[in-house]
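Lab channel / #folding
Pinned by the channel admin:
"Please post every new chain as: sequence first, then the structure tokens as a reply. Keep commentary short and put observations after the output so the thread stays searchable."

First post following the new format, from NK:
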Amino acid sequence: MKDAAVEPMVRALWVKPDGAAVPLEWRDAVAAFAKRGAPAQEGWLWIHLDRADDNACAWLNEGAGLSAELAEALTLDDTRPRAARLDDGALLILRGKNRDSRSPREPMASLRMFVTRRAVISVRLRPFSPTAALANTIDAGRAPASPGAFVGRLVEIAMAEIEATLDGLDARLEALEMLAFAAPTGHLRSRRNELNRVRRQVLAMKRFMRPQAEALREFAGYGDDIAPPDEAPGLREAAHQAARIGDDLEALRESAALVNEEMQARIADRLNKTMVTLAAVSTVFLPLTFTTGLLGVNLAGIPFAQSVWAFAGFVCLLSLIAAGAALAVRRLNRP
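Reply from TO:
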């Protein structure tokens, strides 16, 4: 599905050593990738594909000359961050902030990349805003000098967006924490829905950040045949940043659990007070109800109704039934 407002369905660029980028037709891009780009002094190739496009998937599976394992990794629907040496390059799968309004419940979108010394193939299933931001930089004539530098810059943008999302979640949780202690109890039920949304987002992000840190750390160690030596420190720093974000998400998860417990405790306390009030009202009206019911009883039709002891006998019968019910309840409540 084409989403041109965010990024083109297929984007192919030839990046020159001076930072300028030349758009390529699809046929030219395929031919350039078949040669794995050009000599290093002449630049490098970037091909960006949409996983939802059948033609792109067909080329990856059949026409690109990739191994079956690599083609499958680039076209899977559900992925986790990882890095692996495959074919003559490296596979790197990342996660970044999801800006696709069609899937608001999924907070993170994936980007699959195959990186060689002279070419990058990137595949997205949902709009991946870091590639759009980096494409704007390339269009402005400030393209990264190599595929490794491209990955480094892409990771930097993605991690900055995740950091901003984390700050937003922290602010929302702090506001909910204040409400948990100060807001009227009647407002807490609606606030719990918002808290549950925050908790789901935190858990979904936490699921990917640990593997992302490991993937970046592994990719940084592949050497200058994939990532230039001057880019490795930046990638290792991004790995540390991803691990730190994972720790922060764990702290947010624990804070959200505490806020949820406080909201539940306040709601339960409010419910208990309501039940006590209802019990007090019932206690007040129970003798009145019993007295009016007893005095208004109609004995007509009951055997011995005309006897002088009929009313006393009826009261004794009620007393026996009440005693039996009390005994049954006592036995049922025994531990």
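NK: Confidence is low (pLDDT under 50) at residues 1-6.
TO: also worth noting, The two ends are 63 Å apart (CA to CA).
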